Amino acid sequence: MLLFACQNNDKSLFTIKSNTGINFKNTLTHTPQLNILNYLYYYNGGGVSSADFNNDGLIDLYFTGNQTDDKLYLNQGNLQFKDITVDSGIQNKEPWTTGVTNIDINNDGLLDIYICKIGNYRHIEGQNLLYINQGIQNGIPTFKEDATSYGLDFRGFSTQASFFDFDADGDLDMFLLNHSTHPNRTYGKGDKRKEIDKYSGDKLFENINGKYVDVTEKSKIYQGKIGYGLGASISDINNDGFQDIYVGNDFFENDYLYINQGDKTFKEVISNDNTSIGHTTHFSMGNAIDDINNDGNMDIISLDMLPENLKTYKTSGLEYAYPTYEYYLKNGYSPQYMQNTLHLNLGSSIFSEIGFQSGIAASEWSWCPLIADFDNDGFKDMYITNGIFGATNDMDFINFVSNEKIQKKINQGMSKEDLSIIDELPQKKTANYFFKNNGNNTFKNKTSEDTPNSFSNGATYADLDNDGDLDIVVNNVNEIAHVIENKSINIESSYLKIKLKGSDKNKFGLGAKVKIYSDSLTISQENYSTRGYLSSVQPELHFGLGKVNLIDSIHIIWSDKKYQTIRNIKSNQELTINYYDAFDDYYSIFSTLTKGLLTNTSNLLNFKHKDGSSVEFNRDPLIPYASTNLGPEISIVDVNNDSLEDIFISGGKRQASQLNIQQTNGEFQSSQNNIFEHDAINEDVSQVFFDANNDGFKDLLVVSGGNEFRNGKPLRPRLYINKNGVFTKDSIQFQNIAVNASKVKAVDIDNDGDLDINICSNLQPWKFGVTPTQYIFENDGKGSFKNITSIFAEEFETIGNIQDIVWIDMNGDKLQDAIAVGHWMPISIFINNGKQLELQKNNNLNESNGWWNSVIVEDFDKDGDLDIISGNWGLNSRLNASSKEPITLYSQDFDDNGRVESLVTYYYQGEETPFASKDELVKQMPFLNKKYLSYADFANADFTDLFSKEKLSTSLKKEVYELASCYFKNNGNNTFEKHELPFMAQVSNVFDIVIDDFNNDQFPDLLLIGNNYEISTQLGRFDASHGVLLLNDKKGFFTEKKNQNFNIQGPARSIEKIKINGTDQYIIGINNNTPIFLTKELN
Predict the structure, then answer these.
(1) Mean pLDDT, range 528-548, rounded to an integer
(2) Do 89 and 61 lie in a common domain?
(3) How far is Cα 383 from Cα 363, in angstroms, rounded to an integer?
(4) Taking a C-beta distance cutoff of 8 angstroms, is the pair 255, 280 a contact?
(5) Which residues form the ASPIC/UnbV domain (predicted)?
(6) Are residues 115 and 66 in the same domain?
(7) Which structural domain range is residue 415 located in?
(8) I want to staple 418 with a disulfide (CB 3.0 to 4.6 A). Which of 270, 397, 414, 889 is the partner?
(9) DSSP 3-state assignment of 456?
(10) Are 992 and 1052 contacting, i.e. CB atoms less than 8 angstroms apart?
(11) Where does 236-392 show beta strands of DSSP type E?
(12) Mind listing the pLDDT tens digit for each residue in 470-522?
């Protein structure tokens, strides 16, 4: 049976083999004593281990069963297997077995088997088992159980074991992943993770002279009962020679990223500072760590249960509403969302989560990620197992089982008759997915329509037939296991197998890192046996090489940091590398740090921006994003004419903005605080320093917004007159308007020598998407301003929801033109003819409607005209948009209650659908609940069934066609050509961009900043940007600067260049945090 299409032709890449001799089936049988209603992980399945247990060069297979006997199958060649369970001495008949790991525990060159089990739960009294390989008799390995002698006879709720050298002393220690069995109805405080639960808490065992000693508490590993550990991976994440741990926790508890401190302790990153890694999976299943883009940094993949199928998505339990989610975060939990995550390792211990942008975010109810180069093209692909026998997140079932009588039966003990309750659970029998790596941080779903549906859990890969490609074996619930043959050797691609002959204390070289170098490829892998979910692989490495036939060199770095280099290796062979040929400390010779162009420096301001939690979702839960939390903006100005640049930074609601005066020693001192404290209630979002009255000193105009106030003083612009460096608040100008502002600019629109004022607005308060009024005020030269918008800029006045604007002479007539960008509107160019602003037509920008946040203008290609770059929403979310399938806002009173609802839709697989969940929709429009009582009925209804065509057609309608941040090249004839900015520029919202020549090549480069946390929980949040440096390629475009040494973390809003003590620095304003300072690194 064909499973996955090959990338070059229609030949199959994989086929399921029958008649292999493997008949293992993980059969589940409900009983009143044990079933899905009283053991929450009843359907989580079993694992499989691939390993050469008899050292004959053929990979054997071990399957675990939950209520079924484990089975060991001997590989007899040609994909034929023999059941040798009884002959081998394996007798694991008692329930409940979970994960399996192969390990040479006694370093005799024979692989042993460590098995995880459930114990001390209801009637189950198992303990973890260690089967020691006693040797081979007539080709058959025999085993003896001896976990107790090694101190590994743990009794509790074990999921999976990982063996690794955590203290770099040469021998193998063990991390034991366990899981809670407590109901997850109330999550309580996150501090519970610091408590100790002896059954469900994770464990770390140190190998001391061959005995395993519990050092969990000393090593600072969490052991709480709120840990629902389903996946664990080991890797040297930060390339420092010490092995780190990633743990995936189901439900509300954070995932854990433990960074090895090199002193036998770990620092858990996510619970202490989630900005370095961003959001994680919510219902974390299996995970994997590998280098998916061949940059030498190990990336993290974690699976969840986001359905690709839209109907399944609509019937599933989704995320909490935003206000509830905020409470959850305040209780000590980190951001998590129901989606597969791919944390791209940027180096310097920072990550960008790119699951949606990479194309792997949704793959149904997913369990096991296998990351390997299945088509041998040089890039690692992704195989994902799927399916669950009973979908416990089905909302109709949740409503059914929440009945008080049913809950009483479950809690008091079920009878055989009560098992019929389980029949109401819908089954999710789905295909396993295969994602081909495109080589550009994205994956293509190559799953064939002929792929059979299954309830698949654990899986492993191995070259079972020794033909040079990796086959796959899958453990299924209530179905015979799949043996999947890989046919990619028929493609013209090369490979290399590497066997590691390790030290006397680590015979198979676990923890070793191998780097392959050729002209066209650099590939890194690490040697660990625990992989995917509940499963393990043969401790050797397989490299796809594409068309490379001769490898330049290979670096092998062993777990104790010794290394060796071999050169000129031919492809398509198996290579054995011996530890005793290694020498020296790799990390003392090869620096893992690369020279960057920017680096973080110390914060010089005594200021932390404070912006309260957004209440916009309380008012309007159907909106995709809030328009709050848009500060702070930073301005650089010499206030007192002392030739030193000062800093003004805007404050949040109930926080005064702050003026900071630079001292001669480069320090800053806040100044004139009292005058700004008077208006602290305002949420200041933008300001401009300009000489309003032509006295030689820069005056200040501040505007406020934030969608907090509907009208009145908090939305009134404030003018401060500068008298010899001291500000006085003006009481006359701008007193007759109140505007929820987004930007203020000073510009000489009429070339009369004084600066006029432009105030832009992004919204009408409390009216999502409704077009506000824009303003232009003429300066009489003495600091008195007159509103001339309707006369000078009639089209501009109602152009849309402007977020940013640039004034510049676009056509060389020495008059300042305007380029305005915003939400629900196209990039709009207004040409100043001296009498009025005219909207430029026929410039190829008419269908550029986006959720634009920022804009800059420069002659980037040095061809004599001005190009445009605009920062947008980005491509890393569930949403997508085009002119044929736009994001659409329908503003309408759908339920005739006198209030307008904001209904936002997008297209998914060709079907228009609201992004909001049924629960969110019915709260605003109760008629939907009366019309569609069940979630299934709601999911099966068409969009025009939910909302009448009449209501939709009479709605105030706005559309978005473009979500990518883009470079618009000026063609020189008043037309522009759109180019999407490179991949990393699309991972998040872009709120500001600074232009500078960062690499001193005389061409303008870009530094982009962004992120946004005030997003509907159904869309996740934007936290993947750590600042993106794009270098001008001198050909009219930009390239990403890899392995950056700087980190702009958090929701960045504005960036400005400043000279401090004669040195150029950059200051970045962060919402709800302190500013970040960067400086150029000296070359």
Answers:
(1) 97
(2) yes
(3) 10
(4) yes
(5) 509-576
(6) yes
(7) 396-426
(8) 414
(9) strand
(10) yes
(11) 244-249, 256-260, 266-268, 280-281, 287-290, 299-302, 336-337, 341-345, 351-353, 366-372, 381-386
(12) 999 999 999 999 999 999 866 789 999 999 999 999 999 999 999 999 988 89
